[in-house]
Design brief:
Blueprint: E1 6-7, E2 19-21, E3 25-39, E4 45-59, E5 65-70, H1 75-89, E6 93-94, E7 99-100, H2 108-111, E8 113-118, E9 124-128, E10 142-146, H3 153-160, H4 165-175, H5 207-224, E11 229-234, H6 252-260, H7 268-278, E12 283-285, H8 294-303, E13 307-308, H9 316-329, E14 333-343, H10 346-350, H11 354-365, H12 369-373, E15 387-394, E16 401-411, E17 417-427, H13 428-446, E18 449-454, E19 466-467, H14 494-508, H15 519-522
Parallel strand pairs: 1-9, 5-10, 5-11, 11-12, 12-13, 14-15
Antiparallel strand pairs: 2-3, 3-4, 4-18, 6-7, 8-9, 14-16, 16-17, 18-19
Helix pairs in contact: 1-3, 1-4, 1-13, 3-4, 5-7, 6-8, 7-8
Bound molecules: nicotinamide-adenine-dinucleotide (NAD).
Residues 70-71, 73-76, 146-149, 183-185, 190, 197, 235-238, 268, 286-287, 311-312, 314-315, 345-347, 428-429, 431-432 line the site of nicotinamide-adenine-dinucleotide (NAD).
Length: 524
Amino acid sequence: RTSGSTTATGLLKVVSPDVKYEADFIYASYPYRTVNAVVQEDGDVRAEPVERLYHFRTAVRPRKLGLMQVGWGGNNGTTVTAAVVANQQNITWETRAQQHLPNYNGSLTQASTMRVGFDAQGRDIFVPMKSVLPMVEPNDIVLGGWDISGCNLADAMDKAKVLEPDLRSKLRPFMEDMVPLRAAFDQQFIAKNQQPRATNILSTSDKGEQLEQLRKDIRNFKSTKELEYVVIIWTGNSERYATEITGVNDTASNLMTAIKESHQEVSPSTLYCVAAILEGCPYVNGSPQNTFVPGVVELARERNVMICGDDFKSGQTKMKSVLVDYLIGCGFKIKTMVTYNHLGNNDMYQLTDEVMWKPKSASKSRVVEDIVDSNGVLYKGNEDSIDHIVVVKYVPFLGDSKRDVSEYTSEGFMDGHYTTIMHNECLDSALCAPLILDLAIFVELFSRVQYAVEEGDAGLRKDKYSGMETALSVLGFYMKIPRVPPGEPIVSALGRQKACIENLLRALVGLPPENNLLLERKCP
Ligand code: NAD
């Protein structure tokens, strides 16, 4: 290799008068430069650079973290668990081809690097992302959760058939004592074909009582495992949409009343989420359903608990948010996007139900809207859009092995058509499991971050530190339709999303955002 760039293995420490490393906190003062833009009547734009001085304070010590997965016995839940145990125990396994070592590839926190700057020899210096700020190690995460299936995790992992048999048999002794907690279940929210799994459900159908039990489960998990912080992630089946009804789920207090009255439009996922919020635990929604009805969003803000969603962005959608950004960003007018997925896991089986497919279809279809809207040169108004077709098929033989075939056709220079056809194949859960771990690790980190703002001559606008907005849009990288704080636009382009995470990490240690100018070489 000749690039000369180097990845350092130690921790990053910033030396600057604006940054202070103390025993409990890392303090950073950070001038945030942005632009206020006004489109004037004649179409011209007035752009005014503005600056705000942020003061960040990040608690140094990662807490002992518990991750409760809703749907722990599913393909994702078992794969996350198997990977953590295999890494903890350093379990190796054989396939026809070779011996394999456990790893956390596919995870930003564990397997990606960030550029810091040039060294004296002009080499780019990179560091592992996890060395920028203290983060929880995935091997230290304590796992638990709920499932409507009462299978222990070893049996559930065998059923999922994601991992190799040799690895599964070595993991069995560590996983057969792990049994999911009884689940809050309501048949009308998931496909009928899941009914046979529902053997491990709470004995009461009263939603108020279910909520209390879920809260108790969280408290027990926290105390028996001696945890300091618990994150809850929904990786259960995709539910149907709950109907949003004024007086039922539109405000926090109406929602609490609706739960007490066991209203039929309170979904199990909303119950888990409310339980999490009331216990002060952040909640991540990995599926497309509207768990975060307005009442939940209000409750999360009232209680200052982070929520993050919706629907993991793991495979085809991630690729879409790269490819569409590339094509439109280069001035190609995409006319058609026709994408097929086929696989044979339980998630796909449940999506054969039309009602459950609806939220997933909407989530998959909306993932590039903002990228299209960002180019009014190519796309003029709402009528001028892309023929975007999303097809998924259940093919049992393929199990968790997801095949994605996509065709993109664009209008290029002087009507030259530019067509790209792509085929991807990957284990669905091997794409998703590292995202679940990253989400838990980042949520724990960002919950340790506080900020205060100084604005121009007005001085310190907030005189004491407060936590970040509860809708954790900085993790939009992981979500098909990122949930954002009020008024923040949705960003789908993967590059922008990753830059947001990296630049926030940099800001927290007082480093300027990566601008890729490399001016010190171009204009020395
Ligand atoms: P899965 O069907 O294997 O697992 C889901 C689990 O949830 C099952 O074990 C089921 O018994 C359990 N469950 C259902 N309702 C429950 C409830 N009310 N309480 C507790 N447990 C419940 O699915 P999977 O492949 O692990 O995917 C999980 C979710 O993640 C799906 O909703 C899927 O749409 C979403 N997702 C997955 C990917 C990916 O794997 N690449 C990408 C995006 C979104």
